[in-house]
Design goal:
Radius of gyration of chain A: 19 Å
Shape of chain A: globular
CATH superfamily of the largest domain in chain A: Jelly Rolls
Largest interface: A-B, 42 and 42 residues
Strand order of the largest sheet of chain A: 1-8-3-6
Low-confidence stretches of chain A: 1-11
Order of helices and strands of chain A: HHEEEEEEEEHHHEHHEEH
Strand content of chain A: 15-25%
Number of domains of chain A: 2
Oligomer: homodimer
Mean pLDDT of chain A: 89
Structural class of chain A: alpha+beta
CATH topology of the largest domain in chain A: Jelly Rolls
CATH class of the largest domain in chain A: Mainly Beta
Helix content of chain A: 25-40%
Chain lengths: ~250, ~250
DNA sequence: CGACATGTTGAACCTCATCAACCGACGTGG
DNA sequence: CCACGTCGGTTGATGAGGTTCAACATGTCG
């Protein structure tokens, strides 16, 4: 399935890219895009696979085409914290420094569009628009990271879970309910395991599980299966999450 | 006092600036610097004063010349989280967006070098080096924010305090011990109150206080007074903080 | 001097982590 | 085919770490 897709894209690769206009490459002129097309190549990663490590220098950048990438940090004794989740069409990689301070792992199956570091940085030199776009994304990630610091530092387990579900409802695409039950409410897909949710929220798996069932018994969410949920009243969930604004980002 | 200082600087302002080469303006050419000098002006803020608010648009950027600025976010019910501490020569303000998602407040007395938003953004257009420098700082802030997410999500109160003290030991200048006791060990100054430490670490004031005394009874730190402390063995403190690396940033 | 702000200490309570058992889905191999 | 182990998720019982409420100490300012 991927091979067919790749073959399809082989000729006018970037032009046909689904995330093209939303991704950083949207900043590129026609001929710059052609240059990028020449140096880029797609790669697939299976769930759990390490994409970038903090151990050895990373020699490429990437755009997320599909799937979710988690950025993790680990303490010497093994405690782990997810410091970022990257969805399509986010850009992956730390500009100006091949050394990373975190891991990038595939949360589920992931498709990336990869660019060799050297070629990409050369392109970066010649295209101020591209650097500007990367800057913008970095600022957005900074905003998101700070937003999440509030979640980690000041919210209860219940609020953390609610915040996470709201985040998913904002960022993840609506998925059809696999049970086949037709419903008026949109159904969302949890792109990560319970363990990942715990690592993202600074909780344990058990607490995550308990708080989810608590939200369920409060009828603030409905579960189709372990990975799919519906939100009858998004405003109510938002309020429980402690969001004053109905929607941001 | 400020007026005298300002008058003094009126002629060769930026050239004589103490933080010039370390701040973002270090990226500027001679004549760009002259342009910046023309639009910049110093402002002082007393402890606790709001510098930028998330309520109304901010019409200026600034460099921190001295003092510490805290970036705070507040939940609807009043819970607060500090999402960043800016020291000299950090840059203050969100490029490309006059709307802020956080407050900037003076932690102690603060001196800023302010630039009107419009003029500065014009300068930004014409000087790619300046934008690059801002980008670099944004990436560093992002790294710092993510580093802090680990502290908030996964560390114990004790480790949080140790992490904070290590942060101060890295970033704050060494201060002479006000008690006058000459000592072989360097003395650091806590630039924020206990309440601010609590808001930065996701704790309560009481816990902060207790953990500090615990570190003191363990002889990992020594207190001159409430704002000044010494670290007999920085490596030990670092280890307690959960830093595998002796020093980063 | 008393009022106030900032910081410390004590006691009781509560949230969440820990340890453990259990459940269903899945794959494997006898 | 079913027993078996494994993996991801749920649920229960218990306890520790941190919050909460309260009192107290110290320093500053009117």
């Amino acid at each position: 399935m991927e091979t067919l897709y790749n073959a399809e894209n082989e000729r006018a690769r970037c032009g046909a890219c689904a995330i093209r206009h939303r991704a950083v490459c949207g900043a590129l002129e026609r001929e710059e895009l052609a240059a990028l097309s020449r140096i880029s190549h797609q790669r697939s990663f299976a769930a759990g696979q390490v994409i970038m490590s903090d151990q050895d220098p990373v020699d490429f950048f990437a755009n997320v085409i599909s799937g979710v990438v988690k950025l993790t940090k680990t303490l010497p004794d093994g405690r782990q914290q997810i410091v970022g989740l990257q969805f399509a069409p986010d850009f992956l990689g730390r500009a100006f420094s091949p050394a990373h301070t975190y891991f990038a792992e595939a949360a589920g199956d992931v498709e990336l569009c990869c660019f060799p570091r050297n070629s990409f940085e050369a392109l970066l030199q010649s295209s101020p628009g591209l650097e500007h776009r990367l800057f913008e994304q970095a600022l957005q990630e900074l905003d998101a990271a700070r937003e999440w610091m509030v979640v980690l530092g000041r919210k209860t387990a219940q609020e953390k879970i609610a915040s996470f579900l709201c985040l998913i409802a904002r960022r993840s695409l609506v998925a059809p309910c696999p049970r086949g039950a037709v419903s008026a409410q949109p159904t969302f897909e949890l792109p990560v395991s319970r363990a990942d949710m715990a690592d993202f929220l600074g909780l344990t798996i058990e607490t995550v599980s308990r708080q989810i069932t608590r939200l369920r018994t409060k009828h603030l969410i409905r579960l189709c299966d372990h990975q799919h949920f519906m939100v009858p009243d998004l405003a109510a969930l938002n309020e429980l999450a402690g969001h004053d604004l109905p929607a941001l980002h």
